[in-house]
Amino acid sequence: MSTVSRQKTEIPRSGDTDVRTTTTGDRLKALGRAEFSLLVRNRTALFTALLVPLGMIVAIKESLGRIDLGATGISVIEASMTGGIGMVLIMAVYGSLTAAYTARREELVLKRLRTMEASDREILIGTALPSAGLAFAQSAVMIAAAVAFLDVRAPQQPVVLVGGLLIGLVLLSALAAVTSAFTRTVESAQITSMPLFMISVVGSGLFVPLEVLPERIASICELLPMTGTVTLIRAGWLGGAEANDLLGAALSALVWTILSVFAVQRWFRWEPRR
User: DSSP characters for the chain?
Assistant: First the structure.
């Protein structure tokens, strides 16, 4: 992270009105550029972010092949692709950032950055920007490819789809920061991020739409962190959701995001865990 460039505020001399300082945009750009360089150099993280979610689409499709989706009004490939976007968010954002925040903390990068001009919020956001941007671009490519080559419907409610993606990026970035607080090493990030991964895969509608689950189980699954985001993405892409369902999903995602941001402020660690 030593490549992060920045300018220090200069105290003007008498009669000198030209004060050079950096803006929030400048600092975020510098932090994001440095973090992107580190991400590209980390082949394991790049492979996980780019290729693992695509492989998971095949697994989702195979699992859905044994389930009757007639009542949901969506096809197997449509359910697979929307579930695949959820996997992109989990793998490219949550998993990648949990390891990144942990690594930067243990290498004292975060501690050094706090002595500079960037605020705590800017440091966290700047670190998350490359992973979030990569996930958003990958989701856009998947949607375009599915519509063009897999006979999937074009997005029915683009605003809802984009809103679901954006709130998912913020939510999972915040959850990654929280998880890193309980992660001692980069290697153990795969273990500490596993609980959210498992409950999201099983209960948030990635592999199996909630509509095919028993009503009591589905009502419990609606309370999980990723469920609101997945519901918004699926409804925005494929349509068919009632206004009340969209409102409930949006409120669930928003509440989880607020709780996650509060947890970051309360428990995020800037010093190495030793």
Answer: -TT----PPPPPPTT--------HHHHHHHHHHHHHHHHHH-HHHHHHHHTHHHHHHHHHHHHHTTS--GGGT--HHHHHHHHHHHHHIIIIIIIHHHHHHHHHHHTTHHHHHHTSSS-HHHHHHHHHHHHHHHHHHHHHHHHHHHHHHS-PPPPS-HHHHHHHHHHHHHHHHHHHHHHHHT--SSTTHHHHTHHHHHHHHHHSSSSS-GGGS-HHHHHHHTTSTTHHHHHHHHHHHH----HHHHHHHHHHHHHHHHHHHHHHHHH---S---
Instruction: Give the global pTM.
Output: 0.85
pLDDT in tens, the chain (274 residues): 433 334 343 434 444 444 457 888 888 888 888 888 887 777 776 676 666 666 666 666 666 666 666 666 788 888 888 888 998 999 889 999 999 999 999 999 999 999 888 899 999 999 999 999 989 988 998 898 888 888 888 999 999 999 999 999 999 999 999 999 999 999 999 999 999 999 998 889 887 888 888 889 999 999 999 999 999 999 999 987 888 989 999 999 999 999 999 999 999 999 997 6
